[in-house]
Recover the amino acids of this structure.
């Protein structure tokens, strides 16, 4: 392990975070986010944090001044994991220094965010989860506008980081490699390093471009610039932080909701495919089996939720005082919005899906594990892994009575010859199952029943609520059911649970390995 | 696929079932099970069923009269799966013909069991699950004694079948093979076929011997012969059918409970190890890592449940009117009993664990997936798979930063060199996760909320209750939480759900593959 190299890159990360914080400073001026006065405390907290970031960056860069140029596998993994830890800590500072207020139970009196809350909120931002401990965020006395802007900026930075990381590190796994190698254009003469930089740059450009387009669209549809930028950040990073207490539903605008649905779907689409579409090859998008499955899951689930919500239950109140057509439109929009919000792992809310029937609620919990496409900003397990999972299971069952027949898994018509692929996919599902089960059990153990009592939630729902909280943080979504339903948040949990969630969000966002290896002693021994 | 061979063996199975039914006939006589009069209806139903079994056997044997001697892999799988289907259907007949009464909701008026109920009860017996739709079983007007005896006999037959199948088919998988090959004694000159028969015979003898010893022990501890035999069958097969409404708790006897705990633990122990112990090599038992983990899980979980039940919650009412020591003894016995009952997948009840704290309830649900040791009558996923699962996950995470290092998984100190093992273990966990998730979702969809309302259970628990019902049937346990809690049963569910459970019980008992292949069209095409 070459710690000098790790150190130098951590220094760069610190500077990048400090630079991004600087962009939140203008939001402290009166009127920018609708506030009446200059936000002294928020501005001060940001300036102090920027100075700390610069200083930390200088120290890390100094420690790593003699680092070699070559990046080995172990160093790459360490940098990914450690830079996320560093970002979380640095990003938590402004909340702590500004003494942002939140309400931890039903009492009206707010308290200042503690260290666990700040780390949770920071990680939730960078991991593009969008889970929050904050309520009453429209009240600038509780949450300064400039910190609300910083909160959304962490989404932007996290989304950008994931897109670049996919190219550099995560996309090197079997599934990602198969996709990248097969479809990414570029002069084949280029070395893999130059080509990687080239690809990362294109992806970053697409990401920034879509953020820009969405910001303008949301502004035109009635948001102010502050809201438009924050919601564009939340959408394109599949994060989910809003600037309103009622999340996106607070705008009460069909145009905004349909626009956000479209851009959430785009954010969950493989950036390689978007690039190919921009190059005038949209056929690649329709030919891609991951994207087709992704769209199939979205519209299939919406249809199921609509069917159960209309015929079995009466979730959408069809037949009320609105005209019938309008009712069906609302039902369709609400179902589609929630499905897209959960599948892409954005987690915005427009309807309280926790009031829907049990089938729909269970389906939405299952959908939490689906996630976006590989090479998108979407979290979760990724659609491609589910496709391969099902194909592998089917093949292996056939294998049990035809042991001699060797058949390659095919994806979009192409055979995948990587012999390690089945094991890697099954391994990922195994790890997620184990982490999910153990974390839920630990959460139920460390979180007292009184949390439910104090929040006015039935204690009998503790098992489901806890499972949904773990699923939601591990898959970087945000809301869940019951105590963390779409009208609730994570404030009620005790500090140890919040730290558990913080860990789970990081674990999920970095697709497990880059975090798990940090916990293994032999990883740190010099090679 | 040689269907003649399949047919011939199905004929033998039919005869075996008819023969076993004959042993239930004496239980119809007055006084045997405490009944006042001769049970005409039950006796008639059994006699008719026996005749049908004989006839079906003759037809199958006739169809398969020209079958070859050699058994290929595909035929073996088909026979395992189909014989279980046949046994379920034949075993359901007596319930149907005797018009056994059950109560499907809170109403007091009983109705005769329908086809779905009979198949459910029969499968539950053969798969040694012990889930039931029957209540008020102490009332002979509802359930004739001779059918109660038949019900317990299906456990005996199912347990015997699994023990023999393990040797013949299931034990041929990687994990089973590793255990069998390494430790099973016997002259190496014998061919694999003779050796297999020899082993199967020894295992069957141990199984019958333990049934006999337990019967005598229970008789001495206060049961009558009828109860003693039925409960021995239920214990040694890790089934769980009782003859009392309150299950084993109805005897209110410490001696009986501790005896059953011991024999449940034995029933969940690898029969190879028991044989070695009988041969005077008990050290093998203590050296075996699966058995040590099995005991560790049992006592570790008991300690956790005791700790939470005493210090966090007040589940055992310690400090009530009994002397303190007595309280702790009861708390220990109840915890240990329920842990053993669920880990070994027996499912007997002495305490209503559904009233315990949420941590203990969640832990018990997780324990449902553990199961007994390989080569025991215990169901579930088996301890060995969990050990290998954790070892494989750990190795693969290390592999991610040390791709060049190849390290074999070790079990009880011996390296396992089978290259397919990691994939097979991960595959099994993947299949269980997928089947569990999909079945739960389907169950929530097909079972109306009114089932909960009619049973006086909160509808808000539908998700957890449904998940526990699927976990309980798939792992062949019996009870779960909420609507199928230890004081409830499966009667309230609609027929489609009961058929789903019937399928899940078979799937779990035959360790998935022998059932799944039957659903694949290419399996049936001739080679």
């Amino acid at each position: 392990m070459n710690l000098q190299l790790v150190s130098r890159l951590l220094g760069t990360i610190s500077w990048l975070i400090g630079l991004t914080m600087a962009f939140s400073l203008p939001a402290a001026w009166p009127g920018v986010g609708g506030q009446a006065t200059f936000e002294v405390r928020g501005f001060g907290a940001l300036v102090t944090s920027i100075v700390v970031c610069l200083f930390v960056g200088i120290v890390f860069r100094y420690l790593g001044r003699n680092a070699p140029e070559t990046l080995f596998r172990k160093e790459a993994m360490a940098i990914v994991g450690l830079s996320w830890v560093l970002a979380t800590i640095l990003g938590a500072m402004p909340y702590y220094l500004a003494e942002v207020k939140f309400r931890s139970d039903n009492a009206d009196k707010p308290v200042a965010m503690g260290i666990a809350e700040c780390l949770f909120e920071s990680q939730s931002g960078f991991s593009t989860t969008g889970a929050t401990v904050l309520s009453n965020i429209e009240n600038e006395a509780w949450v300064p506008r400039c910190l609300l802007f910083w909160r959304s900026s962490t989404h932007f930075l996290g989304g950008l980081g994931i897109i670049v990381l996919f190219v550099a590190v995560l996309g090197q796994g079997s599934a990602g490699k198969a996709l990248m190698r097969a479809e990414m254009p570029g002069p084949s003469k280029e070395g893999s390093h130059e080509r990687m930089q080239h690809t990362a740059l294109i992806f970053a450009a697409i990401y920034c471009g879509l953020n820009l387009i969405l910001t303008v669209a949301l502004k035109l549809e009635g948001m102010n610039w502050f809201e438009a930028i924050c919601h564009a950040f939340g959408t394109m990073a599949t994060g989910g932080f809003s600037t309103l207490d009622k999340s996106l539903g607070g705008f009460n605008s069909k145009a905004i909701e349909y626009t956000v649905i479209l851009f959430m779907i785009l954010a969950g689409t493989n950036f390689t495919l978007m690039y190919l579409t921009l190059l005038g090859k949209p056929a690649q998008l329709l030919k891609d089996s991951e994207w087709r499955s992704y769209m199939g899951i979205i519209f299939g689930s919406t249809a199921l939720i609509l069917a159960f919500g209309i015929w079995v239950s009466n979730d959408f109140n069809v037949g009320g005082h609105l005209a019938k057509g309008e009712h069906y439109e609302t039902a369709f929009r609400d179902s589609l919005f929630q499905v897209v919000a959960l599948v892409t792992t954005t987690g915005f809310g427009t309807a309280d899906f926790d009031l829907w029937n049990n089938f729909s609620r269970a389906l939405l919990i299952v959908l939490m594990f689906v996630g976006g496409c590989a090479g998108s900003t979407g979290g979760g397990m990724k659609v491609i892994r589910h496709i391969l999972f099902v194909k592998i299971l089917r093949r292996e069952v056939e294998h049990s009575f035809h042991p001699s027949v060797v058949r390659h898994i095919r994806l979009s018509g192409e055979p995948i010859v990587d012999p390690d692929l089945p094991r890697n996919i099954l391994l990922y599902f195994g790890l997620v199952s184990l982490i999910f089960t153990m974390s839920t059990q630990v959460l139920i153990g460390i979180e007292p029943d009184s949390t439910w009592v104090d929040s006015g939630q039935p204690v009998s729902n503790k098992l489901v609520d806890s499972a949904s909280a773990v699923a939601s943080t591990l898959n970087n979504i945000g809301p869940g059911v019951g105590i963390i339903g779409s009208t609730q948040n994570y404030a009620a949990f005790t500090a140890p649970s919040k730290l558990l969630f913080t860990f789970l969000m990081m674990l999920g966002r970095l697709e497990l390995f880059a975090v798990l290896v940090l916990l293994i002693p032999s990883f740190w021994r010099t090679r």
